[in-house]
Structures are given as C-alpha cells and as structure tokens.
Amino acid sequence: MAGKKKPRFLLAVETSCDETSAAVLERGRILSNIILSQDEIHSPYGGVVPELASRQHIKSIDYVVSESLTQAGVGLGEMDLFAVTQGPGLIGSLLVGLTFAKGLAYYFKKPLIGVDHLQAHIEAPFLENDRIEFPVLALLVSGGHTSLYFLEKPLDYRLLGKTRDDAAGECLDKVAKFLKLGYPGGPVIERLARGGDSSCFHFSLPRMKTAGYDFSFSGLKTAALKIIREHGLSAEHPALRDFLASFEETVARALLENVHKALEEFRPASLILCGGVARNTRLRTRFSELAEGYRLPSYVPSPRLCTDNAGMVGALAWKKYQVSPVSSTDLDLDAYPR
Ligand code: KG4
Ligand code: ZN
C-alpha cells in the first residue's frame, strides 16, 4: 500500500515545552492547528516546571489530537503520515508526544517523521508564503533558544551563532519574574511597556569577546536587575513603563546587531524572524526596518505561528518527506533534550 498512494493527510504532534499541540495538514497546508497552553499552571512559579509540564501533556494530548481531527474533519484512519518533535526541549515533555505519535504510527502502519523543533520554527513563515527566496538568513528567538541560521537552499541549515548563556525570551521572562509581573514575561513586558520612553534608561549592549555570531543575554539581565534595585522599581512604580520600554528596545537592538553583521557577510536574498519572541511588535518593527534598509524582503509569521505549534512541525515533516520519503514506522526514533 505505502508508496503506491500519494500521501495527502498528515497529523503532527508538538510537546517540546509547555504547549500541547496537534495539527492536521493536507498536502503540507494546515487544516487545523490546536494549541493548549499551560501558562496558567506555570505562572505561579515564574517559569516552566518540567515535571508539571510532562504531566499536563499526558492529560491533554488525547483531547488535543481529537480536537485537531474534529476541526479538520478528517479521521485518524485517513492519516497517511505522522510527525512529531524529537527535540530540543524538556525530555519528559518530548517523550509524551513522541510516544503518543509512535503508538499511532505503529497501529496504523504509517511512516513517522521526526522533526527538529528549531528547524520547525524556521518553517513557520513558509506556511504563509511559498515564494520566500533563498538564500535565507533566519533569526530564531524563543524562550529556550536564540540562534542565527543561514540556509543556502531549503532544508539546508547552517548555524552561524547561538546564545552562550540565556536565550532572549528567557531574559525577558526572568526580568518579569524578578518584578513579579507574571509568566510568560515577554507578552507582559510588551503590554506594560506600551507608550513608554525607550531612551529613558541606558543599557550597554552585550558584547561578545570573540568574533562570530554568538549572542549573550546574561549580562543584559544582570544590568536590568541592577537598575531595578538601584531605582527601587516594582510593578507599581511610575517609571516601570519607561524602564520596560528601554529594556525591550535593548533586547531588540542586541538581537539585530548580529543580523546586521551577517547581512554584510552572507548577502541573503530574504530575511526570516521566528520563534515566540518574534510576536513582539517592537522587534518585528525593528526587524522590518533593518530589512528595508537593505531592500530585502523580510518574513515574520503571524503571532500564532511564532510560538510553539504543531502546524510548523507538520509543515517541516511534509517538506522532509517530499525530499526523502520513508515507508515504515521508525520505532527507534528517539527524543533529544538539546
Ligand atoms: O517559541 P516559544 O513558544 O517556546 C520556545 O520554544 O521556547 O517561545 C516562548 C517565548 C517566551 O520566552 C515568551 O516570553 C516569549 O516567547 N514571547 C514574547 C512574546 N510572546 C511570547 N516575547 C516578547 N514579546 C511577546 N509578545
Ligand atoms: Zn519553540
């Protein structure tokens, strides 16, 4: 059977961190993309608690997958392919999705395609635009990762640099936690910074001592915490808005400095910004300003496709399958935390 009939429907599962997500795709296009966030569970702790995350995935996965099928109007037995995030992420969380998808693929005797979570983020803008020109320079900014990639052609990922310490999203989350603003910190900071004066507080940009495209955000976090202490800033302080606007602006500038440098060296045809922090309006604006300065097209996914979702996982799996089709369920497929 497999190999004769051209695949049409794909079910993708994503559980790498604190979102339980399942998506149904038809020939690489999203029919449904269900995302169940665990924000409320982790919020009291100011960050993701791995043990709680994996337990919650176990509780939600069945419902999320059923809902994705209902919304797509397609039955489980009609799936031609299954896809799942293998890593990087929280190992317990990854294993929930991987085991679930493996079980389905094995039962229905269909291929299972393992996908890298970071590469899946880069795939998100392609879901909304199939004319993105290569070579591509892609900046991935999430809660766990901050990386710069160069793609000469599709599926050809060359990592130019990554963070040596905290990810940009992690830096936002930790500063928000310190100020007791809630979790996840990125969206809260964005909301509270609105209308603030971004030139009010001065942060020096993190500088890497070595050449290349690595990032560092722990220095910026320390500088932010120092300012908070020195000025006695709190959730109620009148200067909070200006402080958060200044901090958000500095994070955006630190991210774009490396993109700017890489643009000069690699001369890409297009630019991509992706990952959860790409939801941030200030960063989106600065990114498109940079691209316009170079007269380059830039692509940033719609906010829902920036944060973790199974749609991007399915899209990448579909593309991988077109290039190298597999016919059996690979039961050896393993999860990797990093
Ligand atoms: O990609 P993602 O959903 O998960 C990981 O793979 O890490 O990204 C989550 C990160 C969190 O750090 C969160 O604070 C940040 O994305 N984030 C934002 C915004 N929305 C989510 N950061 C800044 N502004 C936002 N609007
Ligand atoms: Zn992610």
TrEMBL record:
Binds 1 Fe(2+) ion per subunit. InterPro entries: ATPase_NBD (IPR043129), Gcp-like_dom (IPR000905), KAE1/TsaD (IPR017861), Peptidase_M22_CS (IPR017860), TsaD (IPR022450). GO terms for cellular component: cytoplasm. PANTHER family: TRNA N6-ADENOSINE THREONYLCARBAMOYLTRANSFERASE, TRNA N6-ADENOSINE THREONYLCARBAMOYLTRANSFERASE, MITOCHONDRIAL. Belongs to the KAE1 / TsaD family. Its cofactor is Fe(2+). Substrate binds at L140, V141, S142, G143, G144, D173, G186, E190, N280. Keywords: Acyltransferase, Cytoplasm, Iron, Metal-binding, Transferase, tRNA processing. Pfam families: TsaD. Required for the formation of a threonylcarbamoyl group on adenosine at position 37 (t(6)A37) in tRNAs that read codons beginning with adenine. Is involved in the transfer of the threonylcarbamoyl moiety of threonylcarbamoyl-AMP (TC-AMP) to the N6 group of A37, together with TsaE and TsaB. TsaD likely plays a direct catalytic role in this reaction. Its main location: cytoplasm. It is found in: Cytoplasm. This is tRNA N6-adenosine threonylcarbamoyltransferase.
